[in-house]
């Protein structure tokens, strides 16, 4: 049986399974972020991709998870086997690292990225379901914040490892891919051995008709629309870092450490923002996160040099801390218990789809203009998105009322 929130004392600490899943994410993110940190350089320098081609690759990186996220959430609810579905996703992510070794062109790189993102999409909603069912409703923000903080620790360490490996062997991307694969396998083993399997029998099978019924939940639908509008106006991290590189705020040597700076801020703020969302409203904190993202855009183009890079990374990390874990915590109280994973996957798919469109659009704009001009255009688009989304999301049912 799933752990019921009624079985957890009100003042209980974060459940053990949340910490274990956080450690799994820590190890897995070391693997993933090692690759993510060098992917812009590998694609543009080693493979010679244009900004438009990299934008399409980044769009694939974001968009490959959309359908798989939905399938992962649906089958986790239908089969009541979240560990099985999530485990398959972790295994796919590990396999993708091996696919990177023979890559010599955009096609092979795109295939490896698609498999990696499919694995991430498959595992995300079932993993978040395990967190949501283990945590008390009034501590959802904190529980997701603890998980995301551990996840961010891995995201911080991954680029450091990649930086160290490339410092030892400049240009040896294959070494990074091999070490990344080993870390991914360790994450799979930790997940299989330390996360308990819970397989309750559902009252009836979940059907696609049940998924459509989610869209009739007013607060959930408004949250979903707000997520889609806001995410479509986002710039991928890699692109934003390339803008800093192009503006000479950083050099190629230090490029992988930009990911470290973002993750460090994310790590520091994930739990405080989670607690803040439990206390003052998850929708408010989520919306404020995109205001912080807008600040990141503006500092990237208005403030040059080392200070501009530091401020940009600070705002970017704060944006992730205010949105990544807060979003599933905001959605969960609106959802029927038997469709929690599906509902979480729907909002996360909306975010991934919006980011995919944004990545392709930003690459196209950069190709016909230049980096700073493209950021200005997206800053204007994000401002318009905020003006559109804030009324939607503030009308959504406040999750705080569901946790009492």
TrEMBL record:
Single GO MF annotation: transmembrane transporter activity
GO cellular component term of the entry, any: plasma membrane
Keyword Cell membrane: no
InterPro entries xrefs: MFS, MFS_dom, MFS_trans_sf
UniProt keyword list: Membrane, Transmembrane, Transmembrane helix
Residue ranges of every copy of the Major facilitator superfamily (MFS) profile domain listed in the record: 17-397
Record-annotated membrane-spanning stretches: 35-54, 149-169, 175-192, 213-235, 255-276, 288-321, 373-394
Gene3D superfamilies to which the protein is assigned, alphabetical: MFS general substrate transporter like domains
Protein's membrane topology: Multi-pass membrane protein
Subcellular location: Cell membrane
Principal location class: membrane
Keyword Methyltransferase in annotation: no
UniProt-recorded name of the protein: MFS family permease
Species of origin: Streptosporangium saharense
């Amino acid at each position: 049986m799933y752990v019921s929130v009624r079985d957890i004392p009100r003042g209980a600490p974060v459940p053990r399974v949340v910490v274990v899943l956080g450690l799994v994410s820590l190890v897995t993110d070391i693997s993933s972020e090692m690759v993510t940190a060098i992917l812009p350089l590998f694609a543009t320098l080693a493979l010679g991709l244009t900004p438009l081609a990299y934008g399409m690759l980044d769009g694939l990186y974001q968009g490959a998870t959309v359908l798989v996220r939905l399938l992962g959430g649906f089958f986790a609810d239908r089969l009541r086997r979240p560990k099985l579905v999530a485990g398959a996703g972790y295994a796919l992510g590990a396999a993708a690292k091996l696919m990177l070794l023979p890559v010599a062109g955009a096609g092979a790189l795109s295939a490896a990225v698609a498999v990696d993102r499919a694995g991430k999409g498959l595992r995300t909603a079932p993993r978040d379901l395990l967190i949501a069912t283990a945590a008390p409703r009034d501590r959802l923000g904190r529980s997701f914040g603890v998980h995301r903080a551990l996840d961010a620790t891995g995201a911080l360490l991954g680029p450091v490892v990649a930086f160290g490996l490339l410092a030892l062997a400049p240009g040896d991307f294959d070494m990074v891919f091999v070490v990344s694969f080993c870390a991914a396998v360790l994450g799979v083993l930790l997940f299989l051995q330390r996360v308990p399997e819970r397989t309750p029998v559902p009252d009836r099978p979940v059907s696609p008709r049940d998924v459509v019924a989610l869209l009739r939940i007013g607060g959930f639908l408004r949250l979903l629309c707000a997520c889609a509008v806001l995410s479509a106006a986002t710039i991928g991290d890699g692109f934003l870092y390339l803008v800093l590189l192009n503006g000479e705020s950083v050099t190629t040597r230090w490029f992988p450490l930009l990911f470290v700076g973002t993750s460090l801020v994310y790590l520091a703020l994930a739990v405080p923002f989670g607690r803040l969302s439990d206390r003052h409203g998850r929708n408010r904190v989520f919306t404020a996160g995109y205001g912080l993202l807008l600040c990141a855009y503006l500092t990237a183009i208005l403030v040059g040099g080392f200070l501009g890079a530091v401020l940009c990374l600070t705002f970017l990390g704060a944006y992730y801390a205010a949105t990544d874990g807060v979003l599933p915590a905001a959605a969960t109280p609106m959802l029927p218990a038997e469709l929690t994973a599906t509902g979480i996957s729907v909002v996360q798919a909306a975010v991934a789809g919006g980011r995919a469109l944004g990545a392709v659009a930003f690459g196209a704009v950069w190709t016909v203009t230049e980096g700073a001009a493209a950021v200005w255009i997206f800053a204007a688009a994000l401002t318009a998105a905020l003006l559109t989304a804030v009324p939607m999301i503030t009308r959504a049912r406040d999750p705080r009322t569901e946790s009492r």
